[in-house]
TrEMBL record:
Cited Pfam families: MMR_HSR1
Name used for this protein in its record: G domain-containing protein
Residue intervals of the G domain: 52-156
Species: Sulfobacillus thermotolerans
Highest taxon above the source species: Bacteria
InterPro entries from the UniProt entry: GTP-bd, P-loop_NTPase
Length: 201
């Protein structure tokens, strides 16, 4: 099963993917870089190295999707889960062609993913920063909810002001599951795992 992680720049997608993989038991990852024609180059790195490389204040650090493959023990039928980290989708039209292209191909992946996990930075609701929830989040939601299993992960609940943000977000995205999480402290990871397992059958 492929779970696509999508959202605005700096909302915590990369930190979520790596810490969630670690929560699911992974210590070293094959960091598969997927090119636009879906060719994959494989590298093995520790989760700590991956974090140093991929988690950043700089937006659009990861243009190509990164896939993390996990095998989850389940008696005689181990489950295979791929979590795909993607480039941030920003508001408006980005001035760099490569970034625009990466965003377009990320959006195109929504239709083929088995599940979409849409991260928002719930601590920035009402702010003007690039990671603040905005119109592009509503567009992603409108599209993704039609296509299959979809949830919003309200990230950075460890930060001040996030509790209000979660209830506002639930109000705004009625009918869509909103799971409060912290990619940093791993709060809410149990709920995300339960959701994924429910869809994996
Ligand atoms: N306090 C806090 N910071 C976070 C959390 N998730 C991500 N960050 C920080 O937000 C910044 C952007 O994270 P990153 O994973 O690179 O975001 P991405 O652009 O969506 O992949 C980094 O400085 C992270 O350390 C969180 O849950 N809590
Ligand atoms: Mg990233």
């Amino acid at each position: 099963m492929d779970a696509l992680v999508i959202g605005k720049p700096n909302v915590g997608k990369s930190l979520f993917v790596l810490n969630f993989a670690s929560y699911l038991g992974l210590r070293e990852i094959r960091l598969d870089v997927m090119s636009s024609d879906d060719r994959v180059s494989v590298r093995r790195v520790s989760l700590e190295d991956a974090k140093r490389k991929l988690v950043s204040h700089t937006a659009h650090k990861t243009l190509l999707p990164r896939r993390v493959d996990l095998v989850l023990p389940n008696g005689k039928n181990p489950k295979h889960l791929s979590i795909i980290d993607t480039v941030g989708i920003s508001e408006g039209i980005h001035h760099v062609a490569d970034v625009r292209q990466a965003m377009a191909s990320t959006l195109a992946r929504i239709s083929s993913a088995d599940m979409v996990l849409h991260l928002v930075d719930v601590s920035r609701l009402g702010h003007k920063s690039i990671e603040a929830p905005g119109p592009v989040d509503e567009e992603i939601a409108r599209y993704a909810k039609l296509l299959g299993p979809y949830a919003i992960l309200a990230n950075k609940v460890d930060k001040p002001g996030a509790a209000d943000g979660v209830s506002q977000l639930r109000e705004q995205f009625r009918g869509i599951p909103v799971i409060p999480i912290s990619a940093l402290t791993r709060r809410g990871f149990r709920e995300v795992k339960a959701l994924i397992f429910r869809y994996m059958g």
